[in-house]
Amino acid sequence: MDIAVKGIAVLGATGSIGSSALDVIARHPDRFRVNVLSANTQIGALLKLCVQFKPALAIINDGSQLDALALGLRNLGLKTEAAAGPDALCHAATRSDVDIVVAAIVGAAGLRSTLAAAQAGKRLLLANKESIVVAGSLLMQAVRDGGAELIPIDSEHSALFQCLPGPALGRAATPEVRRLILTASGGPFRGWRRDQLEHVTPQQACAHPRWSMGQKISIDSATLMNKGLEVIEAHWLFGAAPQCIEVVVHPQSIVHSLVDYVDGSMLAQLGAPDMRTALAYGLAWPDRMTAGVAPLDLLQLGRMDFEAPDTQSFPCLGLAFAALEQGQSATTVLNAANEMAVSGFLQGQLRFLTIADHIGRMLEQFGSERASSLDELLELDRRVRLEPLPHH
Length: 392
Ligand code: NAD
Ligand code: MG
Prior knowledge:
The protein has two domains: 6-153, NAD(P)-binding Rossmann-like Domain (Rossmann fold, 3-Layer(aba) Sandwich), CATH 3.40.50.720; 161-326, no CATH class. The protein is built from 16 helices and eleven strands. β1, α1 and β2 (32-39) form a beta-alpha-beta unit. The termini are far apart. The strands form two sheets. Strands 4-3-2-1-5-6-7 form a seven-stranded parallel β-sheet, with helices on both faces. The protein has a four-stranded mixed β-sheet with strand order 9-8-10-11, with helices on one face. The longest helix has 19 residues, at 328-346. α1 (16-26) packs across α11 (276-284), α6 packs antiparallel against α14 (328-346) and α10 (225-238) runs parallel beside α13. With 392 residues, the chain is an alpha/beta fold.
């Protein structure tokens, strides 16, 4: 069968997810062509990708680097056009030569381009979980209005998408589903008591035992906020009520998540901890294709363990559940406060345990505000980011 070649935009191409996506795409030149690549500030890495993929358009978020990007492309003899800034990202997500948008920007900075791809009816491979935490109802509405195909690129949500009957989006709201069970690796500090976490460093926190990821999500995994963001993500994607979403720590990160059905069946998706599986699934859906991932060796694995999350040492998970119960404004506050606290921790301005303290304080201060439109949510996000971080 002749498959039409699909045009792809990888937004956040220089990151961990961006590289994994390009690795999978490069294995299937007969099926995909990269037409847009973007990066925040890493112009050298972006140029290198342009040499490899020869996209029609390259975007650098930092406007001051536009001339350098254009010059670099010309010097390399490439026909790739150069653009800069958030508006260029939104425009790129709607281009006619783009069928699939890989939303791999980190943080709420990815929200507008993610929404644009949804409104334009693209296949949206959503890794940028912060956008759904900030504006889940707006994003799901944009997906419906635009007729987009939203496929989650988070190992847990890809697992749930695969274990729910199609159409999977909204499916957990039906009476046949009892619970969604998200697995968590527990991060680098699994089993640590609160007092042991007092002086941990960014380097220790970034050393994830199972996954190699960008810095921000690595810190989120260490605080368990990543799982909190994922609970919110599961709520919006699958329509599950907060009390029907559970988190189980599974240190081997082999079972990526489970659906518990009312008849007593539980369906799980298993695989090596490698994001290329979820990316290949999203790119090929409803088909399957190779991802460069080795098959799982169950005998070598030998055993799998499951335990309850430690909410004393890792209060961020509880804060995320509480914000979800409060509503969209509160999850926007949670996300903005977390982004600021994580960045402060990475820069040595804040201690590890203070991340959760800051988020808790911001939720108390701003959590009951009522923002619903995109502009109101972005304004709330901006105000939370202006609040000072606690002293070291
Ligand atoms: P990363 O830091 O490795 O890469 C982020 C990418 O976004 C880079 O290309 C960077 O240039 C770009 N970027 C950063 N700030 C930007 C801005 N303000 N404007 C435009 N572009 C910007 O991050 P990552 O680990 O690849 O994660 C990306 C997203 O995917 C995050 O939302 C993360 O939570 C999610 N995710 C990641 C993994 C993983 O394994 N890495 C797994 C599941 C979900
Ligand atoms: Mg995940």
